[in-house]
Structure formats: C-alpha cells, structure tokens
Amino acid sequence: MTPEMAFECLLVSPDPAVFTTMDGILHDFSIATKVCPYPSRAGHLLSEGSTDLIVIDLEAENASEFLQQIAGRTRTQKPTVLAVSGADCVAPGVHVILRKPVTHESGLTSLKAAYSRMVRDYRKHTRFAVMTPVAATDDDNRTVQVTVTNIGEGGVGLTSIDTLRIGGILSFRTRLPELKNEISIQARVLWTRPYGAAGCQFVHIGQFDLQLLHAWLESRYRIKKPLIPV
Question: Which strands sit side by side in the sheet containing 53-57, from one edge to the other?
C-alpha cells in the first residue's frame, strides 16, 4: 500500500438526495467513490478494485438481492455495509443503518461508525512482509526451523520444510525490520499448504512485546487521512 491509499466505496442509490449528501461526506473522509444507481447493475463493480465500503439504498429495487450477493462472497475480508432506509430495520449483512431523510449530520455520524469498522478490518487483515528465519519450539518441545514471512495484528505467516500440525502451538522469538528488540510470540497454526506455507494466530505475546509490535505496525499503516476530524 502506498501513502496515498484510499478506501474505496460503492454508492448504490437512485435517490439524488442520498447521492448528493453522501458523496460530499465520502469525499471529506478521503474515500474514493464509485456510483451506481441500481443494485441490479452494481454486482460487476464489486470485482473491480477493492471495495471496502458499500452504501446501499434499501428502497432501491433489488436491494435485498444485492445484499445477498455481498454476503455470498468468499473473500475473507468483506466490505462494511451502510444501508440507507426510510424505516428502522435489520437487514442481513448490514453493519450501519442511516435513516431517511439523509442530512449532513446524520450521514456524518453514520459514516464515522462505518469508517471505524473499516479501519479495524484493515488493521486486522493487513500483513507486512518480514522474511525472518527463526528456530521455533512446538508442543512436543521439538525445534522447528521456520521463516516468518509476514506479520500483522492478528497473527503471522510462516514457511517451513518441517511438517506443521494444524492446531499446534509454536513458540519463538523474532526481530522485526528496523526494530532492535526481539519479540517473543506464541502462535497457533490455523492452516497449512503442501508447499510449506502456514497461517497462525497469536496465542500469547507479552505486554511489552505487544506494545513494540503495535508501534511497529502503526508506523507502516498507510491509510489516506480524512480531510476532517474523525
């Protein structure tokens, strides 16, 4: 990701009032926006680029079918969905509801809630390459040679010529690029691949090491800053 990376939104509404108000607010949040009036025509836009946010008018024809299409996507990280509606309602897959008539104040409040979720998801799923070989210890106190290929808030990616057991816990110390101190990690293997790659989630990191990791990650996140305080 570059320093100019912006979240991307797909705004789906045939209502000019919704478009006029939300388009300006999205711009203030530095969110790049694609506009499609009708849900039936919006499906193909989901596969173009990276859609982080969907603003959908629930009163538009075929809106419920479009929500089902979003829910059925196989991507690990699914977009945040902000639904615009004339009534209080609960719709599957919707994270934030914005009541009509949409005002600048109500749109701003709703988008702040959606934006916070987008940032959390971005940080949860973003990984940074490290490529550091380490000696890990498994549940049987066996030494396993692994390479830490990437790391993020939720876990680490590894490669190894040894067989890693799904569900097994690995303990190791690793140094992150540009960080003098090593951090101590315990991680559980969630999945493996035949070519030696594995994905792990953190089980335990000491408080000091966790602070070091968070500070290192924060220095590398590259979200384009909103034009307004959020």
Answer: 32-36, 8-12, 53-57, 80-85, 96-99
Q: Are residues 151 and 95 in the same domain?
A: no
Identify the CATH number of the domain in which residue 154 sits. 2.40.10.220
Please give the pLDDT value at position 4.
62
Residue range of the domain that includes 185:
128-218
**DSSP string over 156-201:** EEEE-SSPPPTT-EEEEEEE-TT-SSEEEEEEEEEEE-TTSEEEEE
What is the C-alpha R_g of the chain?
A: 21
Please indicate, yes or no, whether residues 44 and 110 belong to a single structural domain of this protein: yes
pTM for this entry: 0.83
CA distances from 24 to 6, 21, 27, 124, 228 (A): 15, 6, 5, 28, 12
Is position 56 within any domain?
yes
Model confidence over 43-98: pLDDT tens digits? 888 776 689 999 999 998 889 899 888 887 766 678 999 999 988 777 778 999 99
Structure tokens at 108: 């701003």
CB 96 within 8 A of CB 137: no
CATH code assigned at 102: 3.40.50.2300
Same domain, 19 and 106: yes
